[in-house]
Amino acid sequence: MKSSLRLKTIFIGLLLLAAAGCGSRNSPPAPAADANSPAANSGNANPPNAAKPAPPQTVKFESAGKAEIAGAFYESPKADAPAVLLLHQWQSDRKSYDDFARRLQAKGFNVLAIDGRGFGESVRTADGQTIAPARDADAVKAMQTDVDNAFQFLSKQKNVDPGRVGIVGASYGSSLAILYAAGKKDVKAVALLSPGLNYFGNMATEPAVKSYGDRALLLVAAEDDKESADAVRKLKDAGANEKYETQIYPQGGHGTALFEVGLADLLEKFLTKSL
Questions:
Q1: How far apart are CA 265 and CA 150, in angstroms?
Q2: What is the pLDDT of residues 57-114, one digit of tens each?
Q3: What CATH code is carried by the domain that includes residue 261?
Q4: Residue 214 belongs to domain spanning
Q5: 207 within some domain
Q6: 46 assigned to some structural domain
Q7: How many domains does the chain have?
Q8: If pLDDT is split at 50, 70 and 90, which confidence band does 52 have?
Q9: Of 24, 74, 163, 176, which has fewest CB within 10 angstroms of its CB?
Q10: H or E segment at 182?
Q11: Are the beta carbons of 93 and 119 closer than 8 angstroms?
Q12: Which of 200, 218, 198, 222 lies closest to 208, judged by CA?
């Protein structure tokens, strides 16, 4: 009887051990760390408290002939940050830079993209007169005043380091950029997209490049825009400066169309290094 009881006890014990083993193999995994715990956030590339870029602000300022020049200002979330003024090409407006402006802002830049007079929202004077696009000498002089007012506006924004402000211009906007920067030593870097040697017959850029000196300069065009590609080569020679950088794509079109062939990467690298 005792032998039978002993065997029964051993058998029950073996059953209990087997059940415990199955339970350990089939038990649910340990719960994941709390999403708000230090362990969960240790490798977080975008911590919850990181500053986020503000949406662009529509701005306006008065310029030559009481023209109201409109623009979009993308403020850097960082203090003492570099800044870039963007000038579009003829028959375009500031929206041609929307994606690139947001990209620069996300990298910590302040950005101001303006509508050239006669385009976009820059089509009225303070007293309601219409502004039409024009290319004569007086119009070009007024455009230069617009660039100066935009540059001064940008330089005075609270998060801007006024010693690190550059300009990017496309087509006739590139001529405005280099003509202005040649006589304005506060401009630290300039990028010219599809430049010309003398747009409108009254915007000669070779003398301006020579006066620009040894500051950072990037000249960009595409071979399928032959006039601009030739201008890049001539302006590079005119400056005869080893610091000047050039990029001529096999194809890509004119001005901001070059964003379709990788221009954004090139520009961001240049501006980050130069500013």
A1: 25
A2: 999 999 999 999 999 999 999 999 999 999 999 999 999 999 999 999 999 999 999 9
A3: 3.40.50.1820
A4: 57-274
A5: yes
A6: no
A7: 1
A8: confident
A9: 24
A10: helix 172-182
A11: yes
A12: 198
In a domain, 4, yes or no: no
Render the burial of 28-47: b for 16+ CB within 10 Å, e for the rest: eeeeeeeeeeeeeeeeeeee
H or E element at residue 191: strand 187-193
Q: How many Cβ atoms are within 10 Å of 220's Cβ, its own excluded? A: 27
Q: What is the pLDDT of residues 120-179, one digit of tens each?
A: 999 999 999 999 999 999 999 999 999 999 999 999 999 999 999 999 999 999 999 999
Q: 3-class SS at 97?
A: helix
Q: Tell me phi and psi for residue 115, to 5 degrees.
A: -85, 125
List Cβ neighbours of 187 (8 Å cut-off, separation of 6 or more): 151, 165, 166, 167, 180, 181, 215
Spatial distance between the Cα atoms of 202 and 176, rounded to a whole number of angstroms: 11
DSSP 41-63: HTT-SS-TT---PPPPEEEEEE-
Rg (CA), the chain: 31
Answer yes or no: is 194 within a domain: yes
Give which of 59, 274, 58, 64 is closest to 148, Cα–Cα.
64
- Per residue in 183-220, pLDDT (tens digit) is 999 999 999 999 999 999 999 999 999 999 999 999 99
Residue 272: strand, helix, or coil: helix
Residues 84, 109 contacting (CB under 8 angstroms): yes
